[in-house]
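Why run this: before we spend reagent on co-expression, it is cheaper to look at a predicted model of the complex and decide which construct boundaries make sense. The entries below are exactly what would go into the expression plan.
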Amino acid sequence: MEEPATGGVRRARAAIGRAVRSTLPGRVESRPEPRREDRAVPEASVARLAVYLRVLSQLAEQGVVTVSSEELATAAGVNSANLRKDLSHLGSYGTRGVGYDVAVLVERIEGVLGLTRRLAVALIGVGNLGHALAGYGGFTTRGFHIAALLDADPARVGEQIAGLVVRSVDELPDVIRELDIAIGVIATPAHAAQEVCDLLVDCGVTSILNFAPAVLAVPDGVDVRKVDLAIELQILSFHEQRKLRPVGGALEEVG
Amino acid sequence: MEEPATGGVRRARAAIGRAVRSTLPGRVESRPEPRREDRAVPEASVARLAVYLRVLSQLAEQGVVTVSSEELATAAGVNSANLRKDLSHLGSYGTRGVGYDVAVLVERIEGVLGLTRRLAVALIGVGNLGHALAGYGGFTTRGFHIAALLDADPARVGEQIAGLVVRSVDELPDVIRELDIAIGVIATPAHAAQEVCDLLVDCGVTSILNFAPAVLAVPDGVDVRKVDLAIELQILSFHEQRKLRPVGGALEEVG
DNA sequence: TCGATTTTGTGAACGCATTCACAAGTGGTT
DNA sequence: AACCACTTGTGAATGCGTTCACAAAATCGA
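The model came back. Tokens follow.
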């Protein structure tokens, strides 16, 4: 690790040999390449686009045809300037003095997020949480379908959940090929997560959603997003503590 | 990249109004005296502290006494400078030339996150997902315990899950008082989320974890964190799409 | 005691994200 | 046509977070 600091973004290569892509404020590899038609939608915007899409879908159902940035921003819980900037990344689809056409915007955002085709998802780990995820409607509603359930426990293999038969994790390579799996969801215990992750990566899966409380090491080019329930609670706990005990000195309380 | 997810704690904002004063102690241009337990831990750091804590706990179990920032950073999937800066927010607990004492650091982080006492959590909505969360070990393991389960469906009230009897959501005010609930977890359908949220807030709960795919409006001073599975998948989908179609690829010479 | 080696803690640089503020369009009205 | 009320799109300003780079401890060996 002693390259000169000259370069642009130099990915901090983990000393261990695998670069770790945390799930935090993401960034997608950006080379010191000259910029071109910068279709690069910032990571932070992408997350919000998904929220806008959800709100817009509801509006569309209600028959709303047009919406202003102010209205949409309020409904999505963000600043309107922020929203306009987000949308500007995908081109100009609004009309000054009027607002945005709901249907057009829905279509545009779906296009950017790649929701026009339905990606196949494999869920590994059908324990408590995995079981719930398999039956969770939220997944299938938009752009995805759970195509396979797998588990390492022989006692669970064969069980039928949400219309799918649980297969052995040993079959993962076959499953991925047969069903053209694009996304792997890991809902195993923490100790098994890395192993499953490696297996997914070896089989060519480059998008992983991790529910196991473990840090996953993956090679460059693989995106990992993590959802850790305990950590969410701990963050709330931190703020809860601050509320109780007014910082430092004075009464300067939180907003 | 993540996420955190998802982002960070979005400070509550008035449903309509704007001007969410970010509550942050602003920049205390105070003298260079990091004295006392400076509460100004940045939001982004808090999320990582929770990760460090998890890793450190594992190290402690393995009997590891000391760890360097480089080792810990690698295990947590972050840059070592970033980690040192995070830790510096809670004072200097490392020893130059040596590293950090694992036990001391664990204790220190637990203190900052307020994990010394066990906060009581109420889970509202015992459907598919809620059911799984109730039985999920990850919650109870560290710093929390699910003290109550509630649901609006009379058919579910009375049912016993994970050693708890499901109570009616109508009893929420009583439950919160009786059990001293500090955190509310919403796992209801989207259409019921805001109503439940309002109820929680009215009863004095200021920390909410929302699993429902809905934007919650809450008054200032209330912290809401959201976990939206569909959005996580959509973000992955976005990147998946970019991989297929090399952004602004050589094809697009549009200029 | 001194120097070699290691590793922390942090000022400064950098880059990304959010917000501000306003010019430039748009539709409606007179 | 001229004006007005409204709303987008965006340069500039601001703020936050990450990374760099190095001086300041601390330990060890001779």
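The beta strands of chain A are 66-67, 94-95, 99-101, 119-124, 144-151, 160-161, 164-168, 181-186, 207-210, 223-226. The longest helix of chain A spans residues 43-61. Bring this page to Monday's planning discussion.
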